Amino acid sequence: MSVVANGKPGSPPSGGRTRAEVMPLLRLSMPLIIAFAAATLIGVIDTVMIAPLGTVPLAAAGITTAFLIILISALWGLVTVVGVRIAQAHGAGDAGEVASNLRNGLALCAIGGAGAGLLMVLAFPFLDLLDQPPEVLAILLPYWLSMALWLVPVLTFFAFKALFDTVGRPWTGVAISYLGVVVNLPLNYGLIHVAGLGLVGAGIASVLSSSATLLVAWLFWRRSPDLLAYRVAVPIRWPRIRSLYREGLPICIGYAGEGAAYAFLGIMLGWFGAVELAANQVVNAIGGVFYVIPLGMASAVSIRIGMAIGGKERARLRPILAAALWIVTLWMLAITALYIFGGRAMSEALTDDGAVVDVAVGLFIVAALVQVADGVQSSTLGALRGMSDNRVPTAITLVSYWPLALPAAYLIGFPLGYGAIGVWAGYGAGIGLAAILLSVRFWRKTRSAPGR
């Protein structure tokens, strides 16, 4: 007997369609989350290894992280559009188009990583204008340059990973990502403490470990029988690269706007001094590990939505996002509790500076209050990206973070005198606004989806 839903025979109820999307999302998002965690674990390893050098080196890592957030956020737009193009081609059953998007996407990511690294080098002389602690800037340059080089292999690897995730090999990306962690750990300790290279040793270790993951990903792609269909001889063409770039540019601008706002948060904290900057680095290191949950879900939603679009199954769009929001809300509520009750223990695990710990504990509490909103806005943004809806979501994120979040952060932190906690509280308002506006955008875009 057929099921009747919304007056149409043969269509399962809305709740049933949502439940049907839960397990596919979990199966795809879990390896994505675990793989993203590998990248953030390298940052945690850096923080743990750098912390014994003192507050000033830890603060130097914090400044570099703030700038990298801007660049990686922007570059992530390129990875996103490559992944969406691959997912749509895979959903349509076109292996040749998958291969073309991969090869041209690899070229685009390599060019983008090199360009961002050059921009980072050129930007270093202007750090004095940001009024950062002079003792921090005095030791920063070698580490800064090594992390500029790191951008090339890490971005190119994620283009390969987009292929693995889409064609049903997400755990391959996990295994290769954790190879980087395994390589990074002894390299970090050996270069920082045994070889006595200090802060720059952490940067060199990051470059070497990321290059190792890229090499292994390339070897797997070249040799795996399962990927034979995606190794067809397709040329790298500038028109295709420019097409990917043009589609990705609004995403880059949106992610850069969000990342720059978050990075400017770190710059504001640097105006208070090295202690607040180091505390923010502690929160970034821990928060980065848990942020992979909404990031992984956003990527999974983007892939599933892209495949549904490619397969002309628009009736699945709303159920896919609804399932994602249920999952990510439960996850983020658990992280909220962890931040509130475990912030001090996590801070003390990364630094023995009591002043840094006290500031970090307050920042963890504020960060805890915006976790669910962050999960909602990330997942909804991923859904819109999978639909190749880029320009309006970009405008939403820019308006939410810049005209609202940063002025509010400055007002609460400085004139109102709430310090570092106030800066983070103002930023949280932008996350909440983005979550609301992006959700409204998605539901309006899918009103005409048949069978909803």
TrEMBL record:
The places in or outside the cell where this protein is found are: Cell inner membrane
Record InterPro entries: MATE_fam, MATE_MdtK, MdtK-like
Q: How does it sit in the bilayer?
A: Multi-pass membrane protein
Q: What is its main location?
A: membrane
Q: Where are the transmembrane segments?
A: 32-53, 59-84, 105-127, 139-160, 172-192, 198-221, 249-273, 285-307, 319-342, 354-373, 394-418, 424-443
- Tell me, what's a Pfam family for it? MatE
Query: Its Gene Ontology molecular function terms?
Result: antiporter activity; xenobiotic transmembrane transporter activity
GO BP annotations listed: monoatomic ion transport
Q: Which UniProt keywords apply?
A: Antiport, Cell membrane, Ion transport, Membrane, Transmembrane, Transmembrane helix, Transport
Gene Ontology cellular-component annotations: plasma membrane
UniProt name for this protein: Multidrug-efflux transporter
